[in-house]
Amino acid sequence: MLTKSTLTVISMPTFTADLSVASLDKLLSDVKSYRDKVNAAPEKITARLAEIGADAIRKNIAGITDPDGNAPGTVSADISGSHATVSQSGDQIAFLEYGTGEQGEASKHPEYQTAGWRYGSGKNIRKMKNGKMMWHYYDRLRGHWRITDGLPAQKQVFRAALTMRDNIVPVAKEALK
């Protein structure tokens, strides 16, 4: 498999000074100011990427046209200094993330094996006369029983992680301006 790597260089600031006390004092002040900015950058970068990730999950959830009875849960970003956790929680969100049934298997989540996810499993699955695997469940959102062949993997959290990864350089550049 071929992969493409891109190296992005963030230019360092240039500091100059004349050989005078006032100029050297200004240089020292500028370097200390930049040091403070660099020391604060991890927290700023983390917070901004967490916001981007949470917003991306919300946007991805909004784009799901038929959750097939699976409630979208809640999205949160817990930020503590230079550490953050962006998550979606709820009883049924795994079904949306990884997909279910034949539709889920046709659009497998890239991490389904790592997560231990299995497609086409469960006690309510039946093979129909036309050969399709279907199952029934009670749709809590609509208040009735439904028959389905599954839901494609929506990958709402996975896609948000990719969005966060794609924003690391721009967010870091902004934090170090």
List keywords for this structure.
177 residues; alpha+beta; three-stranded antiparallel beta sheet; 6 helices; rod-shaped
Which residues form runs of ≥5 with pLDDT under 50?
A: none
What order do the strands of the largest sheet run in, or round the barrel if closed? 3-4-5
Considering DSSP H and I runs of 4 or more, what fraction of the residues is helical? 40-55%
Total count of helical runs of at least 4 residues? 6
Q: Strand percentage, roughly?
A: 15-25%
The residue-averaged pLDDT reads 88
| Helix and strand composition category | alpha+beta
Mind describing the biggest β-sheet?
3 strands, antiparallel
Judging from the principal axes of the Cα atoms, what is the shape? Answer: rod-shaped
- List the secondary-structure elements in sequence, H or E: HEEHHHEEEEHH
| Oligomeric state of this protein | single chain
Any idea what the radius of gyration is? Answer: 24 Å
Alpha-carbon distance between the two ends: 37 Å
Counting DSSP E segments of at least 2 residues, the number of strands comes to 6
How would you portray this structure in words?
This protein is an alpha+beta fold. The protein has six helices and six strands. The strands form two sheets. Strands 3-4-5 form a three-stranded antiparallel β-sheet, with no helix packed on it. It has a two-stranded antiparallel sheet with strand order 1-2. Helix 1 packs antiparallel against helix 5 (156-166). The longest helix is centred in the N-terminal third of the chain and has 42 residues, at 21-62. The mean pLDDT is 88.
